Amino acid sequence: EKGGYDTFMEKEINEQPSAVADTLLGRTDAAGRLVLDELRISEDELRGVNKIIVLAAGTSAYAGTVAKYAIEHWCRIPVEVELSHEFRYRDPIIDPNTLVVSISQSGETMDTLMAVRYAREQGARTIAICNTNGSTIPRESDAVLYTHAGPEIAVASTKAFLAQITAAYLLGLYLAQLQRKLFTQQIRDILGALSEIPAKIQQVLETSDDVKELARNMKDTTSVLFLGRNIGYPVALEGALKLKELAYIHAEGFAAGELKHGPIALIDEGQPVFVVVPSPMDRHSLHAKVVSNIQEVRARGAKTVVVAEAGDEAVRDYAEQVFYVPETLPMLMPLLTTVPLQIFALELASAKGYDVDQPRNLAKSVTVE
Ligand code: F6R
What we know:
Elements: H1 8-14, H2 16-24, H3 43-47, E1 51-56, H4 58-75, E2 79-83, H5 84-87, E3 98-104, H6 110-121, E4 125-130, H7 136-139, E5 143-146, H8 159-178, H9 184-195, H10 197-206, H11 209-217, E6 223-228, H12 233-247, E7 250-255, E8 272-276, H13 286-299, E9 303-309, E10 321-325, H14 334-351
Parallel strand pairs: 1-2, 1-3, 3-4, 4-5, 6-7, 6-8, 8-9, 9-10
Helix pairs in contact: 2-8, 2-10, 4-8, 4-12, 8-9, 10-14, 11-14, 12-14
Bound molecules: fructose -6-phosphate.
Residues 57-60, 104-106, 109, 112, 156-157, 241, 245, 365-366 line the site of fructose -6-phosphate.
């Protein structure tokens, strides 16, 4: 049942090319237009959407944060990401033009379910991005966009995360198409780039020996920091969460720009810092800013481990180790940069002898509030 792998988590990490491919499958018609047929909200209603609230918890909320960057960029619709357990208790402002998008692998997370119910009571339209057919959250939503990652058994989410991001991109492109925020050709180009992602994830998987070796060498580490910026910021948060969950190591993710506002005080000799570097093609030129963050922490003794795009030579001089991922559109990078961080956490936890499929204190679906 583990398909030749030692753990479900390893199997699920290796299933990510098909999780993304299957989530993309059958979403365009003969004319190349997007069709999301599980969407039971009228196109007119979706044309009127002028605000999106994403509700989710944990890893699923990080998928929501990735979606925020992409959807705001493509659709010019403001997107708020709210932890579902905070949402109900802050008098959120919702009206019929607000689209609430819940993201939940299990579809049973009580915090997220209660938040979706509350949003509906307030008059919002709700779409569920969910990996579990017929589960409660999709049943209680106006529409569903299923991710097709297949059952996720390991408690820590991996393939569901990439599938959630993929589904959220599709939703963003669909809205961009309906609201005419992108040209047809731009949408085609993004879909084309998305269709190449599964093979690129496969490449990352096949070149992960160095990541594994580093993880084994770092098994006695007691703290790891993760930096990311823009759409790489939620990737840093996810990298830190995987390490906490699986290896029980103190790990924290920061937006790289926040470093100078406090966290840089944590850096001392030997402190491992992972940096998710934006594409050199990023339209805001954040690449140079993050490279200078790497220099800053390194000058203070940090051991820097960098995840960057193939061909990015500028990072080499400042990194103890660089893991390259294949090139893609800047907005799609999380589907690739997340993978080495998952493998790192898996391998480090395994080296410590921990049960990666059933980490202590955690349950696969959290059905209490
Ligand atoms: C982390 C993890 C959790 C879940 C969170 C939400 O690896 O698995 O943080 O992402 O509990 O669960 P779902 O997506 O089922 O609502």
